[in-house]
Design a protein that fits this description.
By secondary structure, this protein is mainly alpha-helical. The chain folds into 5 domains: 2-116, no CATH class; 132-239, no CATH class; 241-320, no CATH class; 327-426, no CATH class; 436-520, no CATH class. The chain is 51% helix and 5% strand. The protein has 20 helices and 8 strands. The protein has helices at residues 2-23, 29-46, 62-77, 86-117, 154-165, 189-201, 210-217, 222-228, 230-239, 246-263, 277-284, 288-296, 300-320, 333-345, 389-397, 405-411, 416-426, 447-460, 484-494, 507-515; strands at residues 140-145, 148-153, 168-169, 172-173, 327-329, 364-365, 370-372, 522-524. Strands 6-7-5-8 form a 4-stranded mixed β-sheet. Strands 1-2 form a two-stranded antiparallel ribbon. Strand 6 (364-365) and strand 7 form a beta hairpin. Helix 1 packs across helix 4 and helix 12 (288-296) runs antiparallel to helix 13 (300-320). The longest helix is centred in the N-terminal third of the chain and has 32 residues, at 86-117. It is elongated and about 115 Å long. Mean pLDDT is 74; it is low at 29-37, 379-387, 392-396, 431-482 and 490-529.
């Protein structure tokens, strides 16, 4: 502020001398009166920018003093006093403009000196820690903040700007200050103006971000920017929903499915607990933008339009994927996992019927002893052209058989080459055969002793069993090796009926369960327990 006043006093003195030379030609009474009158009028304005020890403006900050000097100028030029004519206003404006011109040149010289003298703290890098020395200088900008020189890649700054200005919480816009990522300090208006004009004046084809352009028009005031750009901010957020993190995407996806299921019981999309979220995200992400438009559009016509579009899309998805998200418990899980890895990862040909479902390896949960139903791929590929579209449509309309893979897995025999691939890449770190005596049922701590006692009771009560009938042995059988009769006999011997109360192995019940897809989320296959 003191610099401005010193320059203003110097400009006023120069302009005053020129005015005397132009208007006062002799030492007459009229010339003296004209000079005195003009000086008294101009002092009404100049006393605001003449230094005196008791002025309140001496205590103003730099930003407040800028507002103060332009407030004085605007009100003085708009005044309607009789003694202030247009010539006098032009004289005042000329003095003020010349002062501003000199002080802007001084500020620019100061910035040039700072950029020449300041050094980087380290070797400049972008936010991915790539050296900026290998990048063309056209795409880099230097910014001085807190006395330190920083070098940025302009694309990193654009990404930071868009993220800060489009910040939201549950789609309530809440723009944040644009900060330096290296020190977490907000950029000043000087830095923001430098960034704006660097993007605008750059010779490369870099489009000005719409949010940053609106922020510039709001004089980099967050309050004004938010008040006047609510619609543009929300449109930008929806158009760039692919940049959301996975947690936010999944939250919207679960809400979308819940809203859809609450109004359409017949077309419910049931997602079982434990369904892999990365698979769910990959399948449902194409519907995310339509869901956001259907819920957060400003116009009612757009809301109705996109709600109908979303409903039709989800109905079509349910029609093609009736069992999507369901869970099936199976005893042939380990062999199914190996077969799935060979089929999907190693591209080994398996002659499977068109409607038989084989889950991908990511949908097989060995820990939970189950697998999940994913998206049904209706694509039909052939090496020869087929113009019989009616037959293809009939194939596509065939219901998905999610239990037909079980007999195929039971009867499938791995080749020596496939066994080598499994051992090298997909071998599970568990023994393939588990001795039944060492099976832990988590019922009691002394389960092994109970099993031994039951075995002794069987040997002692030999009259209860006929020697001609095959006996159930406990040597090296696995659970998958047992038939249904042997499994039931083993359960009776171990007194584990309580564990099986919630599990049904009735084939008739299974068929009824598959006929109505909205009854339960978990399905049981033929070999389920």
């Amino acid at each position: 502020m003191f610099t401005f006043e010193k320059i203003f006093e110097k400009e006023f003195q120069i302009e005053n001398d020129d005015y005397i030379k132009r208007n006062v030609k002799g030492d007459t009474f009229v010339d003296t009166f004209i000079y005195t009158f003009s000086q008294s009028n101009i002092l009404v304005f100049t006393h605001h920018f003449t230094y005196t020890p008791f002025k309140t403006s001496n205590r103003y900050s730099w930003e407040k003093y800028i507002k103060y000097k332009f407030f004085i100028l605007s009100h003085f030029l708009q005044s309607n006093c009789n003694y202030i004519d247009e010539a006098y206003k032009e004289r005042i404006l000329s003095i003020f403009s010349n002062t501003q011109k000199h002080i802007m040149a001084l500020y620019r010289f100061k910035n040039i000196c700072l950029f020449k003298t300041k050094k980087y703290l380290g070797q400049p890098q972008d936010l991915q820690f790539n050296l900026l020395s290998e990048v063309s200088p056209v795409y880099t900008i230097d910014i001085i903040q807190s006395g330190i020189k920083y070098n940025f890649l302009i694309f990193d700054l654009i990404r930071i700007i868009n993220t800060s200005l489009s910040y939201e919480y549950n789609f309530f816009t809440d723009p944040k200050n644009i900060k330096n990522p290296w020190n977490n300090v907000s950029f000043s208006k000087t830095n923001l103006y430098n960034i704006y004009f660097f993007i605008k004046n750059t010779t490369t084809c870099i489009n000005m971000p719409i949010l940053f352009s609106r922020f510039f028009q709001s004089n980099f005031c967050l309050t004004d920017f938010e008040d006047h750009n609510q619609l543009i901010i929300k449109q930008y957020i929806i158009e760039n929903c692919h940049t959301f993190n996975n947690v936010k995407k999944l939250s919207h996806i679960y809400n979308m499915i819940e809203i859809f299921n609450s109004k359409r019981i017949k077309y419910r999309i049931n997602i079982a607990d434990g369904f892999p979220e990365n698979i769910l995200l990959k399948i449902m992400e194409p519907y995310l933008k339509t869901y956001l438009l259907a819920n957060y559009s400003y116009e009612d016509t757009l809301l109705i339009r996109y709600r109908n579009i979303l409903t039709n899309k989800l109905r079509e998805f349910h029609k093609n994927n009736i069992y999507f998200g369901r869970k099936i418990i199976s005893l042939q899980l380990q062999k199914m996992y190996y077969l799935s890895c060979l089929y999907y990862n190693e591209k080994i040909e398996l002659f499977l019927p068109d409607n038989v479902y084989l889950p991908i390896p990511e949908l097989i949960s060995l820990d939970c002893k189950c697998y999940y139903i994913g998206q049904n791929d209706h694509s039909i590929f052939s090496t020869t052209p087929n113009f019989n579209f009616e037959n293809d449509n009939k194939k596509l309309q065939r219901p998905l058989d999610i239990r037909g893979i079980i007999p195929i897995i039971k009867n499938y025999i791995f080749t020596d080459e496939q066994k080598i691939i499994i051992q090298e890449k997909y071998q599970i770190n568990k023994p393939e055969r588990i001795e039944l005596i060492s099976v832990n049922t988590n019922i009691t701590e002394n389960i092994t002793e109970n099993i031994t006692e039951n075995i002794n009771d069987i040997s002692n009560n030999s009259n209860e069993y006929d020697e001609s009938e095959p006996h159930l042995t406990f040597d090296t059988y696995t659970i998958d090796d047992l038939s249904n009769n042997e499994l039931e006999q083993f359960i009776e011997l171990l007194n584990l009926d309580q564990l099986m109360q919630e599990v049904s192995i009735d084939e008739d019940d299974d068929e009824d369960e598959f006929e109505n897809e909205d009854t339960e989320e978990d399905f049981m296959s033929d070999d389920s327990v």
